What we know:
Blueprint: H1 11-32, H2 38-60, H3 64-69, H4 74-77
Helix pairs in contact: 1-2
Amino acid sequence: xxxxxxxxxxxxxxxxxxxxxxxxxxxxxxxxxxxxxxxxxxxxxxxxxxxxxxxxxxxxxxxxxxxxxxxxxxxxxxxxx
Length: 81
């Protein structure tokens, strides 16, 4: 049985998530190379993971947090043309 996710992001948000996510993931990876402390490594790893999450949600068009909160943009609800 396959469950297909419902798209709950508008196209502009999808593009923004991918772009911001790529910047965060690449920037975090770049900074990770020069990390000197354990705290810096942990923070940069969190930035990379967050960036990857933004990229995945942007590419799929589905945000699990939006789904849990019951949020859907007005444009996807059919209220705005």
